[in-house]
Write a structure and sequence with these properties.
Blueprint lengths: L1 H10 L2 H5 L5 H4 L8 E5 L2 E4 H11 L3 H4 L7 H24 L6 H12 L5 H12 L3 H26 L3 H10 L5 E2 L2 E9 L7 H19 L4 H11 L14 E2 L5 H7 L11 E3 L2 E11 L2 E2 L2 H29 L4 E3 L1
Antiparallel strand pairs: 1-2, 1-9, 3-8, 4-5, 4-7, 6-7
Helix pairs in contact: 1-4, 4-6, 6-9, 7-9, 9-14
């Protein structure tokens, strides 16, 4: 429900608006919030509508004391297009005779009221956004819900991709789902001081051998990780010794060679890498090959769904603008 999220964002900067400071790059003067910025088939859109949308697109305006000068023109253009699109969607929904049940408006208004940190902030918002009128606020909420319902029909439903469509894309773009061999390990390393004498090296070796015994006694990721945090001397100790999944070419050959003969959960013997003594636990080994469809589907679905939704929305915007009288003031 982007409209309601937008006005909630706007109210959180109410004190700045009241002081004629919020989004000063975009508004120039807080007293001009009701200034018309566009007409859509005669319906007037104001600076308030534009600012609300800009605040939604760039929610960090309060921290920045407004909109960054280099980004403001782009944010403004995008916000202008969006408020025009929403007004056209609203008008089309009304033309089709779509309605919103009063009880739903009431439920939404109640939930919306709970977003505010205090009654004072809510009252301040109500005055700013709806001239202090609950009735006006209800009409704005009803409008937002009507736009939401319209877009569910014309964008969400029409952009929805089926499993068959996702599988077809997967099968037709096999090269995109090829992955190289990766290893996921946790490590414990004992590193003698630079230039260590024979006695220091012997002590380091003894500490590492003791660490091997303790590491092999661990039963899971957490136990090995806690041991790594306690005794390891490499940079990975702060993250339970976890290296995260990496390609075989990003690990020492000695690690890769040993890991290939291990099963997930196995702990290696002591390996000397340069002057460091290392033990590692194999978390996972993923051979090179094509990512299975079941594994690729969630991310693929999100990416294609986003792309498809943008396409359907753009087409809808073009259709709604066709024949509409739009004036940017």
């Amino acid at each position: 429900m982007k409209f309601l999220a937008g006005i909630a964002t706007l109210v959180l900067t109410t004190s700045m608006i009241a002081g004629a400071q919020v989004a000063s790059h975009a508004t120039g003067n807080a007293q001009d919030l009701d200034k018309p910025v566009a007409r859509v088939n005669g319906a007037v859109l104001t600076q308030r509508d534009l600012l609300r949308q800009m605040a939604e697109m760039f929610p960090y305006s309060e921290q920045h004391g407004g909109f960054p000068k280099d980004m403001e023109p782009q944010i403004r253009r995008g916000a202008m297009d969006m408020i025009i699109f929403n007004e056209l969607a609203y008008q089309e929904a009304k033309r089709r005779g779509m309605t919103v049940a009063p009880a739903r408006v009431t439920r939404t208004a109640t939930k919306f009221r709970k977003r505010f940190p205090s009654a004072q902030v809510y009252k301040q918002f109500l005055q700013l956004e709806a001239n202090g009128s609950q009735k006006v606020l209800r009409s704005k909420i009803e409008r937002a819900l009507l736009i939401e319902d319209f877009l569910k029909i014309e964008v969400t439903a029409k952009a929805r991709l089926t499993q068959t469509q996702l599988k077809k894309y997967y099968d037709s773009n096999g090269q995109k789902f090829e992955r190289k061999e990766t290893f996921h390990i946790q490590s414990i390393s004992v590193i003698p001081p630079e230039g260590a004498n024979a006695e220091a090296l012997k002590q380091a070796r003894g500490k590492a051998e003791e660490a091997v015994k303790k590491a092999k006694a661990t039963k899971n990721y957490e136990e090995f990780g806690l041991l790594a945090e306690k005794v390891s001397e490499d940079d990975f100790r702060v993250n339970m010794g976890d290296h995260k999944p990496v390609g075989f070419d990003q690990l020492p050959p000695e690690i890769v060679k040993t890991a290939k003969s291990m099963k997930p959960g196995d702990v290696s013997d002591l390996i000397q890498l340069g002057n460091a003594y290392t033990i590692f636990r194999l978390v996972a080994h993923t051979p090179a090959g094509k990512v299975p469809f079941a594994e690729a589907k969630p991310k693929l679905g999100n990416e294609l769904q986003k792309e498809r939704t943008e396409q359907v929305r753009a087409a809808l915007g073009k259709t709604l603008r066709s024949g509409a009288k739009i004036e940017k003031l």
